[in-house]
Amino acid sequence: MDAEVLERPLPRPTAEDYINARILESLIEARLSLEFLGRGLVRNSAGKAFQAWRAFLAALLRLELNKLLQAVKTDEERRWLMERAVPRVPTTRMKALSQMLEKVGYGVLSAWTDKALNLHDYQYNGPDPDMAMSKYRNRGEAAVDVKLLIGELIRRIEELKARVKWTDELENALMELKRELGS
Length: 183
What we know:
183 residues; 73% helix; 9 helices; mainly alpha
């Protein structure tokens, strides 16, 4: 089922289903991250945890698009948000986008985005005792952050339940992820 869901084309960012699709993607990527972690594939796990957080940010950006559009000052920034930020969530702008979401009420989001970006670097560079290419000296440090990030992801998605059209598919994916994290 996971592969089928991840391979579905995303609805257009203007569609109501887009938020749910990105939340579901986030939950499935997080579960795959934990599965890889259980197999000892920490770099792959870190990459999936990053993807899960990125999909979650896409859902938040779409959910709060009206507030974000009011907060930016130029038409160019509005167009960029609608055409680039929401559908793609560029890695290079994730920190700035998280800070924008913080300004519209999402508390400390950018610190968690930093953790996701650190895991992204770890995926490509692996452990680095000198910490020049990666913030993790060993696999164990990265594995701890994978679990912390996924725990925060679960907490934040649960907070969204009342604000989105929550489906059985989302509930099942959330329960599976929580069960996997707890084991």
